[in-house]
Amino acid sequence: MTGLDVEELTEVLKTVTKVQKMTWTDVWNTSSKGKDKRGLNWEKLDQTTDDGYTIASIRVTKKHRARVCRDKDWMRFISLHPDHDSTYK
């Protein structure tokens, strides 16, 4: 992945700050499917971490998605992807 420019980094940090204030119900409620996608758009993937946590994808900017997992009360960020398709590989 190439580095983020200042604007992209600012967007990522805004999303992380937003996530810190959210409950898990908030995360799931701000995700929708189809043409009306909004918010984090949490998408469960068919993958797990070595510890057995389910991996999901969330939107962190208009262009970037992150692979994350739920670890009890925490959202663990695994990787940041500059395009939608690479998130699922």
Describe it for me?
A hairpin with a 2-residue loop joins strand 3 and strand 4. Strands 1-2-3-4 form a 4-stranded antiparallel beta sheet, with no helix packed on it. The protein is globular. The chain is 24% helix and 30% strand. The chain has one domain (6-32, 39-88). The protein is built from 2 helices and 4 strands. The two termini are 14 Å apart. The chain has helices at residues 6-20, 24-29; strands spanning 43-48, 54-59, 65-71, 74-81. The protein is of the alpha+beta class and 89 residues long.
Could you outline the blueprint of secondary structure elements for this entry?
Blueprint (H helix, E strand, L loop, with lengths): L5 H15 L3 H6 L13 E6 L5 E6 L5 E7 L2 E8 L8
Antiparallel strand pairs: 1-2, 2-3, 3-4
The number of strands is 4
Give the N-terminus to C-terminus distance in angstroms.
14 Å
Shape: globular
Question: What is the number of helical segments per DSSP (H or I, 4+ residues)?
Answer: 2
Low-confidence stretches: none
How many separate structural domains?
A: 1
Outline the biggest β-sheet: 4 strands, antiparallel
The class by helix and strand makeup works out as alpha+beta
Quote the beta fraction: 25-35%
Radius of gyration: 13 Å
Order of helices and strands: HHEEEE
Rounded mean pLDDT score: 86
Q: Going across the major beta sheet, what is the strand order?
A: 1-2-3-4
Helix percentage range = 10-25%
